[in-house]
């Protein structure tokens, strides 16, 4: 299989709903696709004691993280029969309720697509060096624990 080009998956700030809708709409002409599956990661307003998260500020060593994303993407294409895959992650401040992570996989059959999405998202969460600082309403912060 031909290796794909390394892509920059990062978007500054939240991933807007119209960006997601456009990504979906762009696949209507691809008639070999029978299934899509999408994962949207949203910032939660978690509570710690008497403090509530109002935003997360994401940082990453971009070139290193993009390389890991690329390797995970290639491994997923090797393991599953997919037509296409799109991955986007926020950098910078994303408020509670906004989308920070968007993964979109497509293929001929739903089971393959469902399995591929779960495999890919779990691998990304475990292996990609992205860091989130949870910001509270009083402007204090703590580093996010990935779960």
Give a summary of the structure in a few sentences.
The protein is α+β, with helices and mostly antiparallel strands. The chain is 31% helix and 37% strand. A hairpin with a 4-residue loop joins strand 7 and strand 8.
What does this structure look like?
This protein has one domain: Aldehyde Oxidoreductase, domain 3 (Alpha-Beta Complex). It contains 3 helices and 8 strands. It has helices at residues 17-25, 62-79, 110-127, and strands spanning 10-12, 35-42, 47-48, 51-60, 84-95, 99-107, 130-136, 141-143. Strands 1, 2, 3, 4, 5, 6, 7 and 8 form an 8-stranded mixed beta sheet that branches. The protein starts with 9 loop residues before the first strand and ends with a strand.
Secondary structure layout plus pairing:
Blueprint: E1 10-12, H1 17-25, E2 35-42, E3 47-48, E4 51-60, H2 62-79, E5 84-95, E6 99-107, H3 110-127, E7 130-136, E8 141-143
Parallel strand pairs: 1-5
Antiparallel strand pairs: 2-6, 3-4, 4-5, 4-7, 5-6, 7-8
